[in-house]
Each structure stands twice: as structure tokens, then as C-alpha cells.
Sequence to fold (852 residues):
Amino acid sequence: MAFAKKINLSGQSASTKGDLVFYCLMLLIPLVQIGIFYFGVNFQSIMMSFQVYSTVDNTFTWDASRNFNLFLNDIKEPWFWSMVKDSFVVWVASQFAGTVLALLFSYYIYKKRTLSKFFKFVLFLPSIIPGILLSLIFKFFMNTATPVFMNKLFYGGERVVEALLQNPNLYFWIITIYSTWIGFGSQVLVYSGAMDQIPTEMIEAGKLDGVTPVREFFSLILPTVMPTVTTFVVAGVATIFTNQNNLFAIFGGNLPGTDQTIGYYLYTMVSGQDSMGNYCYASFLGLVSTCIAVPITFVVRKILQRVGDR
Amino acid sequence: MDRKIIKKGIFALAAMTLLAACGGGEGGGGDSGTKAVLEVITFDGGVGSEWLRKAAAEFTQLNQDREDFQEGKVGVQINVKADRSCGGGNLRTAEMKQDIYFTENIDYYYMTNNNKFADITDILTTPNADDGGKTIESKLDRNLSAYLNRNGSYYAVPFYDNTYGLIYDKDLFKENGFYMTDEGKFTSDETKFGTGPNGVAGDWDDGLPRTYAEFKNMMDYMVANNVTPYAYANGTGSEYAMRAMNVLWSDYEGYDKMQLNYTFDGEDNSIISSFDASGNPVLSTETITVSNGYKLKSQAGKYYALKFAKEILTSNSKYYLPGGGNYDAQYVFTNNKYLGGSENKPVAMLIEGSWWENEARKEGNFEDAMSHGANEFNYGFMPIPKVDESHLGDATLICLNDSYGFIASNTKKLKLAKEFMAFLHDDNHLSAFTAETSMTRSFNYKIKESDKASLTTFGKELMNIKESEHAKTVYPYSSLKFVIDNPATFNSEQWAWSNKSYTANPMTYFMTQASKEVSAKDFFDATVNALTASDWTLITGN
Fold:
């Protein structure tokens, strides 16, 4: 505010003018970035939502109805709703179960209990290993090592145990737990960082009042880090329709429609060799997803603000 | 300081690696400075690069005094490079640094839309006096020719024929008497061999199982004789077995009905309209047009291919050796019978692509066998058995790979590149390609008798099939605009097996526990239901 007042002064000093130039130049970089990588990219995407691409003619032509009709066809199919359901399941798991667990782990680390540094390292490890490498290790572990281990442990080496990621009743849940786990790292880092900022006087006052660790967590820690939690969860709403749940990294583009998420569906639609023809419909689905995610974002933010206010 | 050097080193190494990939690199043989230099690259897979090196040497020799390719240069130098990363999507974004490419998994329309290929219409349509006045265009399959022709211009030539199926060990069949008589008895006596699936005595498929039932009997007989019937890849290369199912499908339909999938114009009497109380398909006849083309998703050949796959994968676990990738499958097929021991039962057949033999040799998959005394390998390409005896007849194969040869649009040696391209595609050099690789190019040509001598047994078999009047190959290309505009729907594998209920590869899906309750009919229904009439209307715009 002080700076704003400063630049409104009519008789500006040389150093104030220099500040103004510096301020404008610094502002230019993010503005150009937003202009290109947000408005530019999304503008083209939104345009494509109402276009159709012809490979033969190599042209995009305006046709608002085709993608809409493709969408109407899709939503008549059970697999489509199965994808929507899976997308929400992944979101709930990663945002709510994941957030709750991340908060608890962060609190443990914040309290510097036994092996807390080790846990911090282990939980953050997946975030620094390339996702595709981690997925390959996990796939190998679940499909090769675990069946052998189970066979030896439960069947005395007499039975062939099916690879866990080939069991359609299990694999979606296994991958969802895996995705939630590898999402912990950044959350734990941010939450434990936020907890470290809590004034020690406040915690000590609580101790003098005789609060238990549970009470301390719910009455002192959680309300203090609530803005951080709100930011994470609200930002997470945007991932409902983009999170492919690591399915592509593990299964490639060969998953049944009933086991996909919308994020996986969109990704596989545009990732293939023959993908140009799918760009327009994928853009349309993206636009529809945005239309659904925006109100959910506001509702979730409102709810979390109310919870925070209490 | 050390850290800086290491950092710089890593950066330089990464940059060099990126540049070396596919489009990168400035040729393999250097520049003599006095000759016009042509850079040629080929995908370093089953085809290898020796055929190209030999042709390049011959072309260089023939043109050693030419001065018209480049000002101030006399003669030609052709640098041939083989690179496995030079295929598929890598070329979509890479800068084209070679003059000529022979590679695979190319999206022809994407590449031409992005001006990656030079126009080579003249070399395809100009009669070649050295080739009996024939044009390259005249040797092309009609589907391929129509697909490649964009508004009267050609930008690429097809590379090699690539079909899939069962490769079998002729010696093992002979030694164990796995060949069959027309009465379904097993024999190694050639005079008693049955007619094979084409029903014609005295040709390449004699003695091989004629029907699905005979094939299953043969596998049981192999198991009883301590031989594993087949190996296949269910890791890397698992799509090969799926593509073999496309061949099963096309073989059932025959050439004309399979062609309907690319023309959508004609009558089809093998459309499954329902299943009777016993679960057998009820066939109907439909006149297929662009407006009802989705009905081809119900072609009976697909159902029978699924039924056959389910049967051979699930009825007896001793029928196959699964596991690992395609190299592993090749290894057990070529080596097991020489290695001996209870762990290494001989393998009679291999589900693979027709390029497999070259690749197996390149990967050293014959070496252990040779160190155990093997000095001769005789493999054959097994024709697809028919559903029953009433279907005995000609074989119909399908060629699946999207491999092409083309000249980069940014070449500065267009005249030289075109001459070399034309040179490679006269009958003599197509025949030389087959002689060198034991594979065939996707052109109509005869192999010279002198070249036949150098073919492997497997190569001879492929050539016999190509030249046989009882076998035809379908090239799955359509020139219809709505087909080309919707590749995700009409891609050969998607068109056949795409569905929303199961994984798209039936051969890997039927191996899972989950598929136990899923019948061939269930899978077939799922593929049919994946494309509704209203989807079709949107796709075709009608």
C-alpha cells in the first residue's frame, strides 16, 4: 500500500521512478506467462471445443454440435458414469483420506516423536523419485514380488498366486492407495512447515492449561493450519477431472472403460499417435469438467471457511 | 571445479543423447568431400540394415562418375545408419536430419500434414525402363495406393510386409510326427500329409491342422509327447498375439469380406445377428454401406478368433509357455529342444510377427542352440486353421504395421534421394531385399530364382505364401475420408477389439483370473456394443 501511494506521487524522485520500472518489469514476467500459458493455451482449447478436426483436410472447422452429440452419446453409457464415479472416489481418497493422514503424520513429525525425521524422509521420498520409475517399481513389486511372497507364506509354494494388479476387484483400490501415498510427501512437508510456524507460546500456554495431545491437535494446531489445509483442498477440486490416478503409468492405454477416471480418459484420448482427431472432443470434455468443477470449488471453499471460522 | 566439470559433462552427454536420437545425427559414414553424400537411416529392428548397405554399395558403384547430383562433386557416397529409436512418435517432433528414412509405426497423414515428407509422385508414377517399363505405383496394393495418394500426390512408399501368426518348427514336427493326415491322424510321412487348411494338396500348408478341432488335437498330442505347443509374449510384445487374432479374423472372413472394413460397400453374409440357445452364432446377410458400416463390428470372424484364443489359452495350461517379452518367447522356441532337461521342453510353435527370424538372429537367440550342435533351422509359417471342414479354403492374411520409406522434405539432395529411392524399388532390388532379409516388401513382385536360393526355410515359406494363388493379403487401409479422420476408431486393433468392459488385448485379458467367467461371446458383445448406431452417425456425418 505504501508503495502504491509512493508511485502516485506527482513529484517522483529518481529512485521512485527506478522502483516503478523495476516493479513493472517484474510484473511483466508473470503477466506474459499467464497470457501465454493460461489464456493462450486455454483460449485455443476452448475454441477447439466447438470445432472438428479433419485429418484429410488438415483443418479445424466450426461445428458446435458434433462434440456435444458425442458427449450426449457418452453419457448414455454405463462406463462413462463408472469413470465419473471413479474420478470422485480418487478425489475423496486423495483429498480427504490423504489430507487427514497427512495432517496426522505432520503432527507426529512436528512433535518430533520417535523416528519422525525418518518418516519425513520416507514420506517425501516418492516426491523426488520420478513418477514413472516409482510406478514401475510398484508394478513389479505388486505383480511379481508379492505373488511369490504370498505363495510362499500362505500356500507353501504350491500355488500360483495371480498378480495383484491383474485382479480387477483389487487393482483400482491398490492404485488409489498407492496414489494417495505418493501424494503425501508435499502435503506433509507443507503442513509440518505450517505447524513449525505456530508460536511456541501458544502451545506452552496450552500445556499449562493441561491439554492432551488430541485436544492440542484439534484445538490449537488444526485451527492454526486451517488456511493451509483449505488452500490444498480447494486447489484439489480442480484435480477431480484431471487426476489419472497413475493408471497410465502402470497400465498404459489399455484399461477397460469401467476402470478409468476422467483424467485417464482425457489423457489417453490425446496421447496416442493418432490423436489429433480427438483434440476437439477432449477439449469439449475439459470444458464440461471445468463447468462442473467451478461450482464444486466454491462450495468446498465455503464449507472449509465455515469450518475454519468455528 | 570438479563439480562444475561433472555438471558440464552430464549436460553435454544429455544433449548429445538427445541429438543422437532418431532425427539427430549427421550421418554414419562421414563425408569424403569429393562426392555427393546421401544420408539414409533405417529402423534397426527385425529387417536390419544389410539390405540397404548392399543396395547403397551397388548404387554408389553404378554412379561413381556422375557429376549431376551436386555441383563440384563426382560420384556418390551413401551413409547408411541403423537406429532403433528412429520410428513411431519420435519422428513427429524430431528435426529430419537424414535424407531418406525407412521406418515403422508412422502416422502417414500426420507426417504429411506437417510437411515432413517430400513429394515423390514422379518416382512412383514414371515408368522405369530398367524395370520392364513398370511404375512403382503399379506394384502397389489398391488399398495402399488409394490411402497413400493425397490429391494425386505420393509422399511415401510402403516398407515391409508384416503379418502375424504361428511360426512352427518343421524339424520338430517331422521328428515327432505332428503333421496330420486328412483323417486327423498324426504322421511324419509326407506321402500321407493332409491337404492343410486350404484344402489343396501339394502346396505349402500340407500336413498342417485344417480345423480348430484338429489344431486342439494336435496340441494335446504335443503335450502327450512332452512338447510345449506354443510360446508367446505376454509382456513386451504382447500386442503381437492380439494382432495374430486379427489374422484369425481375416482368415475366417476371406479377402472380399475383410475388404468391406475399408470400403464399406458390399454384401456380407457373416454378420452375427444373435446367438441361439446353444450359444452358437446365428449369421445373417447385410448389405454394408457407409450408413450401416458399424454392423461389421459383428463379423463372425471376430467371434471365432476370440473363441479360438480363449480355447488355446485357458483349456490347458500345458499348451503354452507364457512370460516375458518377445525375445524370451523367441529364445525358448529356438533353443529349448537343444538345451534339454525337464525345464526346457521343446516348443513347437511361436506366436510372432513375420519379421521374427531376423530379429531373433540379431538378438543372439540362435546362439545357445548352435553351441549345442544345431546348425540348421527350418521354420514354417502355419496357416490359420479353419472353424470347421466346411470352411476349408484360401488363406487370407492381414498386414499390420504402418511401415514406410520416405524422403525428408528438408533434404537438399532431392534428385539423388529420388534416384536412389527409385533404384531400391525396381523388381531386382525388391527381390534382393527378400533375399537378404527373408521378408517381403509390400509390393507386387516376383523373387528371382537366384535370390530364392539364399532365403531361409522360413523366408521361402513367406515367399510361397506371397506367390500362392491360394493366399491373399489384406492391407488394412481405407481412402474414405471419415475413416482417415477418425483413426482412433478405425485403427486395426481398435476396430477389432476395442471395448469398454475389458482390456483391449483379448490375449492378455483371457490370461487373467477375472476373465474366467468371461466367454468369447461376452467379449465379442462388448466390442460390438462399443460402437452404437448413433456413434456411427456422428463419425460418418451421415
Q: What stands out?
A: Chain A has one domain: 78-309. The first strand of chain A starts at residue 51 and ends at 54.
